[in-house]
Amino acid sequence: MQSAHVMAMAVQKLYPDAKVTIGPWIENGFYYDFDMEPLTDKDLKRIKKEMDRIIGKNLPLVREEVSRGEAHRRISALNEPYKLEILESIKDDPITIYHIGDEWWDLCAGPHVDSTGHINKKAVELESIAGAYWRGDERKPMLQRIYGTAWENEEQLKAYLHFKEEAKRRDHRRLGQDLDLFSIQDDAGGGLVFWHPKGAMVRHIIEDFWKKIHMKRGYDLLYTPHVAKADLWKISGHLDFYKENMYDQMSVEDELYQLRPMNCPYHILVYKSKLHSYRDFPIRVAELGTVYRYELSGSLHGLFRVRGFTQDDAHIFCLDDQIKDEIRGVLDLTEEILLQFGFEKYEVNLSTRPEKAVGDDDIWEKATSALEDALDDKGWTYQIDDGGGAFYGPKVDIKIEDALGRKWQCSTIQVDFNLPQRFDITYVDSNTEKRRPIMIHRAVLGSLERFFGILIEHYAGDFPLWLSPIQARVLPVTDAQVIDY
Q1: 399 - beta bridge partners?
Q2: Other beta carbons less than 10 A from residue 284's beta carbon
Q3: N or C end of the chain, less CB within 10 A?
Q4: Are 227 and 257 in contact (CB under 8 A)?
């Protein structure tokens, strides 16, 4: 954080009209957002030079606690409107301020080193400039975001920069173009993926493998529509809780329809299409279902953040006492699929009941215990995210580790007590009474688009033979070449 503050101080020294907003630390570095004139890479060099000067002066970093009123007075005197808005969002008193010498200060919780001289200027690098809307809202001002990184020594910085170069070499957007795998066409719109013949061949291989392994493990395949009446999304709750990520409704014969952001309601309708007995369970249905979600244009990123994507979705309807076995089955299936694609290391998290949740305590406890027991049976190490579950049930999230050691969230398993209630799905038990089944949501790859992007970067475009779109090539050889050989 101290490096971020030094950078902000340097910016305002060089550009006195720049307004400071937020400057958090992030993985491998930090950033600061400024309301100011557009910057260039040349400006980054000027800012870094000024940072070196501030570091060299060994200015003390001093923590001060002030009242909310005093903080408001000081910020108003500086004419920093963004700081005032940040101050309003801070709930705790007193307000903490950090000073760099007598020359600059900002709101910050800290902690920091004692002085700027403790920062190794040779281990600090300003990396890039990007645009960012204030508070992530496209209706608010566009800010200049400066990314930087700071390390203890030069060796660590060099290792990080080497990692960045390797990640750049593996960037799926560049390789996707170089290998003619996919494109995103401006004429069609941002975030919409065009799979070219070679990329489509890889996708076909993945889909074929995915379908076969699911059918082998007792899943029934589904194909469902891409749109539905808006009323369906009202029942599911998406129009109440997810509307900002959904596209506008369309009118068809005086009725409103909606592009689907999820596949779950469709699978429930298939379940409801006939009566079920307790003898039918577990019921496993799976679909490679394409969904559409509105994402801000500034957040779109190759195959990793798109507006239309295909989820490897599946839902399991089961009885209370079947949860553990079904979860264990999903874990086994997940391992088999991920190993096939070359992913052997995982980070596993189990998220438990949040403060606000639906469902009785006993079923939450039973479902959470079933997830824990299944993970223990599997022998996987996992972390508990206490209170991090969805409001409708506990969940397990699995992150895979790629060739560069980066972790990617792909697989998820969620127990759901909410949708079965919303859609009033039932079965007849052994006493001919109606009961409500448990619903488990699960995806292994997450989405085909994002997983394909991960695969491209994991293998640097050099896919294993079984996935390669070109597996053999005939090379004509002349007599002269044979003799030379």
Answers
A1: 347, 409
A2: 20
A3: C
A4: yes
Q: What is the CATH number of the domain that holds 391?
A: 3.30.930.10
Structure tokens at 299: 């957040």
**Amino acid identity for residue 248 in this structure:** D
Query: What is the per-residue pLDDT for 111?
Result: 74
User: Chain-wide mean pLDDT for the chain?
Assistant: 91
Name the least confident of 61-65, 276-280, 302-306, 420-424. Answer: 61-65
Residues acting as catalytic residues = 264, 293, 311, 313, 315, 395, 441
> Cα separation of 446 and 331, whole Å?
14
Using alpha carbons, list the distances in angstroms from residue 83 to 37, 77, 133.
18, 11, 16
Average pLDDT over residues 206-226: 97
What is the rounded average pLDDT of the residues 110-133? 88
- 276 half-sphere exposure, CB direction, 13 A CA radius: 20
Residue 253 domain-assigned?
no
Highest mean pLDDT among 24-38, 77-91, 329-343: 329-343
Please name the amino acid found at residue 91: K
Number of domains present in the structure of the chain = 2
- Rounded Cα distance between 236 and 310, Å, is 20
Collapsing DSSP to helix, strand or coil, 412 comes out as strand
Reference 136, options 298, 246, 18, 23; nearest CA is 298
If you average pLDDT over residues 263-279, what whole number do you get? 96
Specify whether the CB–CB gap between 61 and 116 falls below 8 A: yes
Instruction: Give the integer Cα–Cα distance in Å for 160 and 163.
Output: 5
Q: In terms of domains, do 92 and 8 share one? A: yes
φ, ψ of residue 376 to 5 degrees: the values are -65, -45
CA pair distance 414, 424, nearest whole angstrom = 19
- Is the distance from CB of 400 to CB of 338 less than 8 angstroms? yes
Do 21 and 48 fall within a single domain? yes
Please check whether residues 180 and 71 belong to one and the same domain: no
Indicate the range of 44-53, 102-111, 142-151, 281-290 predicted with least confidence. Answer: 102-111
User: Which tokens belong to 248?
Assistant: 């506008």
Contact 412, 299 (CB under 8 A): no
Q: Which pLDDT value is given to residue 1?
A: 66
Claim to verify: residue 180 and residue 296 sit in the same structural domain: yes
Q: Which residues contact 88 (CB under 8 A, 6 or more apart)?
A: none
Half-sphere exposure of 247 (CA within 13 A, CB side): 17
Q: List own/partner pairs for 173-176 with CB under 8 A and 24 or more apart.
A: 173/302, 173/303, 175/456, 175/457, 175/460, 175/461, 176/302, 176/303, 176/453, 176/456
